[in-house]
């Protein structure tokens, strides 16, 4: 028997019965609203997200050798990921602005892809999984931007390039 690939680490194993009842960003009339977290206690929170960008093997070698004309791909992507984490509340309409206490980024280079893992920590009233996801997607977009000149084919397309498997691996909360 195989494990459900859609089940993320730390996810709720119980099946949802009526997801519409659990929607917190809409009123009973269906209007969009920001969730009121004012009465919630502060908690230490952590979320980890991951994703990957598929690239040509020659592009991976150029990144490893710091031979990309635009500069250090991974250092630039790390900065982009951290900046995205810090500005998530400005790009996701119903996200609260939260105090980010730590961001860790880790890149893993394979023969034809780079995996980016972003861990975000905060102490507050709401989680930080959206921040971790924004860090991953922006960091991977920065990689794409840095290497797009060598990833294009003769007609200017990207047939081998793709951002894939973006997901939340972990979400944790500990009362303070």
UniProtKB/TrEMBL annotation:
How would you classify this enzyme at the top EC level? lyase
GO terms for biological process, alphabetical: Mo-molybdopterin cofactor biosynthetic process
What keywords sit in the KW lines? Lyase, Molybdenum cofactor biosynthesis
Annotated residues for binding of substrate: 94-96, 130-131
EC number in record: 4.6.1.17
Q: Domain Molybdopterin cofactor biosynthesis C (MoaC): where?
A: 34-173
Q: Which residues form a coiled coil?
A: none
Residue stretches of biased makeup (Basic and acidic residues): 15-28
The Gene Ontology terms for molecular function here are:
cyclic pyranopterin monophosphate synthase activity
**Could you name the active-site residues?**
145
Annotated region described as Disordered, given as residue ranges: 1-44
Recorded catalytic reaction(s): these are: (8S)-3',8-cyclo-7,8-dihydroguanosine 5'-triphosphate = cyclic pyranopterin phosphate + diphosphate
The protein's annotated pathway = Cofactor biosynthesis; molybdopterin biosynthesis
Role noted for this protein: Catalyzes the conversion of (8S)-3',8-cyclo-7,8-dihydroguanosine 5'-triphosphate to cyclic pyranopterin monophosphate (cPMP).
| Record note on quaternary structure | Homohexamer; trimer of dimers.
Its family remark reads: Belongs to the MoaC family.
Q: What is this protein called?
A: Probable cyclic pyranopterin monophosphate synthase
Record organism:
Salinadaptatus halalkaliphilus
From the broadest rank down, the organism's phylogenetic lineage runs: Archaea, Methanobacteriati, Methanobacteriota, Stenosarchaea group, Halobacteria
């Amino acid at each position: 028997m195989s494990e459900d690939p859609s089940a993320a680490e730390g996810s709720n194993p119980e099946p949802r019965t009526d997801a519409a009842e659990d929607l917190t960003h809409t009123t009973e009339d269906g209007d969009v609203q920001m969730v009121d977290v004012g009465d919630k206690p502060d908690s230490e929170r952590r979320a980890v997200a991951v994703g990957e960008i598929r690239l040509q093997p020659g592009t991976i070698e150029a990144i490893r050798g710091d031979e990309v004309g635009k500069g250090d791909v991974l250092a630039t992507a790390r900065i982009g990921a951290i900046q995205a984490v810090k500005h998530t509340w400005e790009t996701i309409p119903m996200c609260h602005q939260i105090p980010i206490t730590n961001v860790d980024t880790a890149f893993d280079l394979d023969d034809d892809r780079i995996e980016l893992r972003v861990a975000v920590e905060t102490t507050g009233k709401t989680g930080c999984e959206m921040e971790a996801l924004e860090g991953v997607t922006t960091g991977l977009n920065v990689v794409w931007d840095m290497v797009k000149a060598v990833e294009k084919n003769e007609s200017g397309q990207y047939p081998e390039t793709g951002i894939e498997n973006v997901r939340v691996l972990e979400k944790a909360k500990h009362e303070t």
